[in-house]
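Work Package 3 (structural annotation) set out to generate three-dimensional models for the target panel prioritized at the project kickoff. During this period the team completed the workflow that converts sequence records into discrete structure tokens, so that structures can be stored uniformly alongside our sequence database. As a representative example, we reproduce one entry of 396 residues exactly as it appears in the project archive.
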Amino acid sequence: MAEIAHAERAHALLSASSAHRWLDCTPSARLEETLPDTTSDAAKEGTVAHEIAELKLRRALVEPISTRSFNAQLKKLKDKELFDEEMLQYTDTYVEYIQGVVHAFPSPPYIAVERRVDYSSYAPEGFGTADCIVIGSKQLHINDFKYGKGVQVSAVDNPQMKLYALGALKAYSLLYEIETVHLAIIQPRISGQASEWSISAADLLAWGESIKPKALQAFKGEGEYVVGSHCGFCRAKEICRARVEHLLAAGSRAPMKPPLIGWDEVGEVLKKAEGIVSWYNGLKKLALAEVLKGGNVSGWKAVAGRGSRDYADLDAAFKFLQEKGIDEAVLFNRQPLTPPALEEALGKKQYKELLEKPGHVISRSGAPTLAPADDARPAFSDQVKPEDVFSGPVGS
């Protein structure tokens, strides 16, 4: 497989994955460019999972790979530091979804795996890599495998996916007639169902034309800094002046007259304060790193945190304790796994067959939680009394 390793691929300034940022906050791309690009363990883990998914998908649908060659390549991926056995199950889910898309065509469609696409006609120097492209019967499918389990990503009106689709249209429209574009995000660690959305090719091209002015602004580093949910993965999120001032301004609504603020004002304060806790903790981490490397953060210093204790040799320690008459029941705490933990241990498929279908697990709705009005989840329609939700015996 003569492919560039996922972790070594070049990234565009106006990358598709960051489009939700630079389309809303046009100067952010150039601002991020001035900061180091650190890679988290979660991102590295995702890279390994993507490489396994690519290998499986190529073997299943694109390239005839012998079992011996496949196993040898898979073994190399399994030897990577962040490999986990559950990656094999989740990548199978992704491959099965793509196979379902392919087999739904009346005749064999065109399939491209990990295809670099160029959308520079809409965003200067823009390019990216689409996980899987399927074309046939005037349909274009853009499929994206996401291994993260922290935030569920929707395909609905997703700018990253739309940019990939624009690049695919540019690459293939002379070879294939395309009328409809289908976008799908497969995120098996969060949901067994792919997020899907469709748009006509004409509407997609119109959207591409509409973003050209903003993309040009972003490329030049021009425009106003805009704070919002898109800040979440920005490299500058902890020290961006616009965001800092926005978060600190959350308290400016407090000294109002009359002394009690109204519910309309509560909504405004909540919006302004959203993210302030995670921002504060992130900023403290950055400040600590600066102090530890010899820098000066006015009014702060690094001190030793709370220590920890561990056994020099667990087996030797417990054996010694038992020889001294300590009962084994004192040394071990035996507890049943919770349904979520057991699902992770067994895998979603076996968990569903052995526990959910026979009725051994009871699912209960969570307590109401406050969410922004544009949250994708439906609002509660019943009139729920707060005392019915939050009352009950202590510890229940």
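Residues 41-62 form the longest helix (22 residues).
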